[in-house]
Amino acid sequence: MLDDRDRKLLTLLQKNADMPIGEMADLVSLSSSACWRRIKRLTDEGFILSRVAVLDRGKMNVPLTIYVLIRTSDHSTGWTDRFRDAVAEIPEISEAFRLTGNIDYLLKVVLPDVAHWDMIYQKLVRRLNFSDVSSYIAMEEMKNTGFVPTSYI
């Protein structure tokens, strides 16, 4: 079970994983060594999966976000495995979800422009059969924190 200090450390790390240990320790009222041990424990216990750098998508020339809704009539394990493999091999697909309801899969694709979406689409349809593929261009990013709430544990 996590305590308030653990939750606060997780929140601080989500905001800036490069924050110096001493600064984090001060913010959670711990010594630097006690703070480091807690972060190590949180990592060892799997609460912290990795530390990553968040890149500026504009500077990386992938400002466009397209959400893709996919329906398939084939729900076999073999089809799903081929779909997972295809998604894993396309770096422009930054997120992929299997859904309940009328839509089977949701993809988040980040690209330089719409023309690149057709290349990704062609890669997918060459490998798999779909009942329907619908794409939606995001006009404005209103919120994108990547944060996970820490208050439920």
Task: Kindly summarize this structure in a few lines.
The chain is of the alpha+beta class.
Question: Care to describe what's here?
Answer:
It is built from 5 helices and 4 strands; from the N terminus they run αααβαββαβ. By secondary structure, it is of the alpha+beta class. The radius of gyration is 20 Å and the shape is elongated. The protein has a 4-stranded antiparallel sheet. The protein has 2 domains: about 5-45, Orthogonal Bundle (Arc Repressor Mutant, subunit A); about 65-135, Lrp/AsnC effector binding domain/regulation of amino acid metabolism (RAM) domain (Alpha-Beta Plaits, 2-Layer Sandwich), CATH 3.30.70.920. The longest helix has 14 residues, at about 115-125. α2 (about 20-25) crosses α3. It has helices at about 5-15, 20-25, 30-45, 75-90, 115-125; strands at about 65-70, 95-100, 105-110, 130-135. The mean pLDDT is about 95. InterPro entries: ArsR-like_HTH (IPR011991), AsnC-type_HTH_dom (IPR000485), Dimeric_a/b-barrel (IPR011008), Tscrpt_reg_AsnC-like (IPR019888), Tscrpt_reg_AsnC/Lrp_C (IPR019887), WH-like_DNA-bd_sf (IPR036388), WH_DNA-bd_sf (IPR036390).
